Amino acid sequence: MGFLDFIAKPLGQFLYFIYNTVSFKNYGLAIIIFTIVIKLILLPLTIKQYRSTSKMQEIQPIIQDIQRRYKNDKEKMNQELMKVYQEHKYNPAGGCLPLLFQMPILLSLYWVINQPLKYLLSKTAEQISALTEYVINAVGKAAMGYSNQIGIVNYFNEHVSELSNVGDLLKPSELINFSFLGMNLGIIPTIDTKLLFGAQSGTYLPLLLIPILAVTTTYLSTKIMTPKASESKGKDAASGAQGTMALIGPLMTLMFSFQLPAGVGFYWVASNLFQIFQQLYINKYVIKKKEVAVSK
User: Fold this and answer.
1) Are residues 207 and 252 in the same domain?
2) Rounded-to-integer distance, Cα 125 and Cα 139, Å
3) Rounded Cα gap, residues 77 and 72, in angstroms
4) Domain range for residue 147?
5) Which residue, of 39, 141, 214, 223, is most buried by count of CB atoms within 10 Å of its CB?
């Protein structure tokens, strides 16, 4: 992840600033505010990407017709395609470039939430290693649940008195409370029935809401973000690709929701919800009426 540290570190500091100030040390609220700000910053790129995708859907039947007519003459095909692009003022790279700018930021956001010691508290690798070693020694065989950076912070939230044993490695004022609406966003959701319906049911059962919301909002966000095919010639192929994408995203979200701390899933929920309302706004007020009509 070191190659994206130049993005992740300032984002982590920004999230920690929000946590300590405007969210009044409410971690869930900090993620929500953080998500909204980042999404607003990326809004121009999002609009550009959607316009490009919408335009591509509009001219797709023409492109397919050219590809069919000149399938044995690649040079002529490319010439005709360039004419279409120029006539319709379409840049084939227009939909990719915004995504290329956004992807490093989105990847960095995941690490920011998943590694609070490094990116929020600016701890060095040596400090993180020392804290990890201390927790493993203190917990013993049960250390699996505290093996990641969020788990380490969770441990010291539960054992504040032990902070004196680690000196300046971690101070009480640096602790992050991952609790939000009765859920510990620092814990990994599980489908283990022993945990869900056992003595710790009050801790793990509410967390199932995070994967459910993450999957649902991912599906809705994907559907609303995807322009529909405009003509019957390209409709079947486009619909098939869109249907596949609409399923892949939620399935991947479901898988990762049970492997990562709930804070990451909560970020996905906040991001998806904002994206849904953002797209509704784009459709109504930003995209030209002609483009919107074609995409429907």
Assistant:
1) yes
2) 21
3) 9
4) 123-175
5) 214
**Does 166 share its domain with 250?**
no
Tally of domains within the chain = 2
From residue 110, give the alpha-carbon distance in Å to each of 201, 219, 263: 27, 19, 10
Are 110 and 133 within one domain?
no
**Structure confidence by residue, pLDDT tens digits, 138-156:** 887 666 567 689 889 989 9
Which pair of structure tokens corresponds to residue 39? 């999404």
Residue 130, token pair as written in the block: 């020392």
Task: Look up the pTM and report it.
Answer: 0.82
State the CB neighbour count (10 A cutoff) for residue 204.
22
**Helices then strands, each counted (H, E), the chain:** 13, 2
Instruction: Residue 32: count other Cβ atoms within 10 Å of its Cβ.
Output: 21
Q: Are residues 47 and 110 in the same domain?
A: yes
Q: How far apart are CA 113 and CA 149, in angstroms?
A: 10
Contact 239, 229 (CB under 8 A): yes
Are 189 and 130 contained in the same domain?
no
Taking the CA atoms of the chain, what radius of gyration do you get in angstroms? 23
Where helices occur in 88-169 by DSSP H, the ranges are 96-114, 116-119, 125-139, 149-158
What's the token pair of residue 225? 């973000």
